[in-house]
Amino acid sequence: MQNKKISLIGAGQIGGTLAHLAAIKELGDVVLFDLVAGLAKGKALDIAQSSAIDGFNTSLMGTDNYVDTANSDVIIITAGVPRKPGMTRDDLLSTNLKIIKQVADGIKDTSPNAFVICITNPLDVIVMALQKYSGIPENKVIGMAGVLDTSRYKYFLSQELNVPISEIDAFVLGGHGDTMVPFPNKTFISGKPLSKYIENGKISHQRLEEIINRTRSGGAEVVKLLETGSAFYAPAASGIEMAESYLKDQKKVLPCAAYLNGQYGQNNIYAGVPVKIGSGGIEEVIEVSLDEDEKKNFDVSINAVKELLDAAKKIDPNLE
Questions:
Q1: Interval 75-114: pLDDT, tens
Q2: Which of 5, 20, 140, 176 is catalytic?
Q3: What is the rounded distance in angstroms from the CA atom of residue 111 to the CA atom of residue 137?
């Protein structure tokens, strides 16, 4: 039986970590692509040389040629630049739109049937641009954001309440950024609503709000601590969870940036919502009921995405 093929576009910190995790989990043969060929080849070789130690049997290669990524089952895109000091939002958007168009041109003919996961920021707009540029069906193009944001939220709660992270059931929706929407009213710890922990004095409303704000600025906190660079372990783990659900038809329900066509009252936009991921790609967008406050916060987040999308259309009218 032929192995699945996973191509990783961008061999930076996230790309290298994605390759390592995919290899250890033996999800399929791994191709690391980067315009800097030596970077991709060096990381692929380094990971391959650990196979005898970690006991995996995975083929790894590095390349700067999209031909080598042909017929991929999964493509995960991290190519792009992070926001640097002095760089405006529009500067970042303009630069990464150009990069994502090059990527789309590289994959649309070589791997038209791939399940494509985008991690490049600003996420919601970039993944929508990727879908339009590539022409790959909406159910096969998805953005990684909510999985990461939810993981951060769960971690902060587990530390605050001193409970195993596996005991926390929660999710974060909306655009990937400072308007993302954690849902305390739909958060459960050991099967009990978070509100019970507030009533019992285990956590205050103020402390919960601090955790929510920390979740929203989770990436910025890591950037500040690192000083040079941004998060890569948790983002890579999030991307791998999505890829594994597709490759193994696990049908996990995960919060991801998905195309909305009427769901949540939104049309023709990508935003973070729960989706079922199986061998058909995005097999279902799960609509959860939102109370008045939750709907208001969700709409604020969606409007922030729409503002970015309007800015993207000014940069490239072809996105209309």
A1: 999 999 877 766 666 788 999 999 999 999 999 999 999 9
A2: 176
A3: 12
